[in-house]
Amino acid sequence: MRQKFARGQSSLEYLLVCGALIAALLVPINPDTDGRNVMEICRDALKTWYTAFAHAKSQPPLPF
Question: Which domain holds residue 34?
Protein backbone atom coordinates (compact mmCIF):
# COMPACT_ATOMS: atom_id res chain seq x y z
CA MET A 1 0.00 0.00 0.00
CA ARG A 2 2.82 2.40 0.86
CA GLN A 3 4.49 1.88 -2.56
CA LYS A 4 1.36 3.07 -4.33
CA PHE A 5 1.42 6.52 -2.72
CA ALA A 6 5.21 6.98 -2.80
CA ARG A 7 5.46 6.43 -6.52
CA GLY A 8 5.28 10.07 -7.70
CA GLN A 9 6.81 11.71 -4.65
CA SER A 10 10.24 12.35 -6.18
CA SER A 11 8.70 13.95 -9.26
CA LEU A 12 6.65 16.27 -7.10
CA GLU A 13 9.67 17.19 -4.97
CA TYR A 14 11.74 17.88 -8.10
CA LEU A 15 8.96 20.07 -9.51
CA LEU A 16 8.65 22.06 -6.28
CA VAL A 17 12.41 22.64 -5.96
CA CYS A 18 12.73 23.74 -9.60
CA GLY A 19 9.73 26.04 -9.24
CA ALA A 20 11.18 27.62 -6.11
CA LEU A 21 14.54 28.19 -7.82
CA ILE A 22 12.91 29.78 -10.86
CA ALA A 23 10.78 32.01 -8.66
CA ALA A 24 13.85 33.07 -6.65
CA LEU A 25 15.69 34.05 -9.83
CA LEU A 26 12.79 36.02 -11.30
CA VAL A 27 11.60 37.97 -8.24
CA PRO A 28 12.92 41.56 -8.13
CA ILE A 29 15.62 41.95 -5.48
CA ASN A 30 15.12 45.43 -4.00
CA PRO A 31 14.36 49.01 -5.08
CA ASP A 32 18.09 49.83 -5.27
CA THR A 33 18.43 47.69 -8.40
CA ASP A 34 15.57 49.44 -10.23
CA GLY A 35 13.32 46.42 -9.79
CA ARG A 36 15.66 44.09 -11.71
CA ASN A 37 15.85 40.42 -10.84
CA VAL A 38 18.90 38.18 -10.50
CA MET A 39 18.72 36.98 -14.11
CA GLU A 40 18.76 40.54 -15.47
CA ILE A 41 21.69 41.52 -13.23
CA CYS A 42 23.68 38.45 -14.32
CA ARG A 43 22.80 39.08 -17.99
CA ASP A 44 24.03 42.68 -17.78
CA ALA A 45 27.26 41.66 -16.04
CA LEU A 46 27.95 38.96 -18.65
CA LYS A 47 27.16 41.40 -21.47
CA THR A 48 29.60 43.97 -20.06
CA TRP A 49 32.31 41.35 -19.59
CA TYR A 50 31.88 39.93 -23.10
CA THR A 51 31.94 43.39 -24.68
CA ALA A 52 35.27 44.12 -22.99
CA PHE A 53 36.60 40.68 -23.98
CA ALA A 54 35.55 41.11 -27.63
CA HIS A 55 37.18 44.54 -27.77
CA ALA A 56 40.44 43.21 -26.35
CA LYS A 57 40.34 40.23 -28.70
CA SER A 58 39.82 42.46 -31.76
CA GLN A 59 43.00 44.46 -31.13
CA PRO A 60 45.99 43.63 -33.32
CA PRO A 61 48.86 41.77 -31.67
CA LEU A 62 51.75 43.80 -30.35
CA PRO A 63 54.84 43.76 -32.60
CA PHE A 64 57.97 42.18 -31.15
Answer: 8-58
